[in-house]
Amino acid sequence: SVYTFSLPEIHSALNYRSIQSYYAEFVSLLSKSVSSIPPENSGLLARYYYLRGLMYMMQGKRLEALFDFQHLYKTDVGIFPADLVKKVVDSMTSEERFNAERRPELKRLISQVKEDHIDGTKIDDHVKKFVLPKKHMHLEDFVKRIQESGIVKDIQTIHRLFEALTVGQQKQIDPETFKDFYTYWKETEEQAQDVDLPPEVIEHLDKNESVYKVSSPVKTNCGVGRIAMTQKRLFLLTEGRPGYRDIAKFRDIEDVKATSVNILFLRIPTLRIKSISKKDVFEANLKSECDLWYQIVKEMWAGRKMSDDHKDPQYIQQALTNVLLMDAVVGCLQSPKAIYAATKLSYFDRMKNEVQEIVPKTTAETLKHKINPSFGQTIPQAVDVLLCTPGYLNASEKDEGAH
What we know:
- By secondary structure, this protein is of the alpha+beta class.
């Protein structure tokens, strides 16, 4: 379809006042268009968000520009202006940066820009041209489709995903299952970006921390609320007056169990988490969500332990990818075998139980920060040249998110 957007008239006097007036009128017309377009017309919405973001930039309204560019994740990631967003972030004043990081969706965007997760290799031509498959897929075609979708590139991870989605059936995936999985993945991604954390909760999190999963409202021994997961910890978003109750950092977990309790003659599935730093065991009556959260916490705990042992931050990033894939598999399959299927993606938890790999003491004492030169690649690559430049890490870069 062809759509027409009428540009505002350009006045003859090209002075500062008339130019700013032109930008303001342009923004007003775009805002009217945005409010009149239904959400399902995401392609057209993306173009208007892009244009309005540019106009906000020209007006010096960097926060508003970031909000519009952030919307492109939900509408059309193919036109996401990565370099432009990085320039906006770099040009922000300390006050603008502070206000931006108080909003979860902008905080995540800034964190991704800072860590160079939004670059040409992440949003490539394959992702821009991706279309849902219309035929049944064997493993080789499934790998290609998942890589084109931008969900994950690592071949071994995609192999495990294929096993999860084909549990108890022929080793091929039909187009409807792929569509259900892809849709659930994208919806979950959007829901995580839409989590609105109050300032009193945000102040407890580190700068590069983002919420990736939130439970339904549950009853716990710390009150009623929703369990939230970041790449570093679990915490409780309390109901009523929104607040923060710490559950555990993944590196501090001592034990996790899925059990049940009797409530009014009913057996309610319950998750128990024991933390090294806390005397009391955290308990949550997660009901139907219990088994999935049990698998998620175990995988993140195992990934954090391996990340700490090997001084390699990519292990925890991989663990995070694994649990988000688990979540999408369970949401997609909606069957009694869904949890068993999700365990096919529990790579680090299985490694912890099957292979007790011990890092030599001298290596552990010497190694400060291990890097993975093949991060973001489909298969491991050899290193031909290694260039070392002198420098120092500042305080914020010493955490596991540094590269």
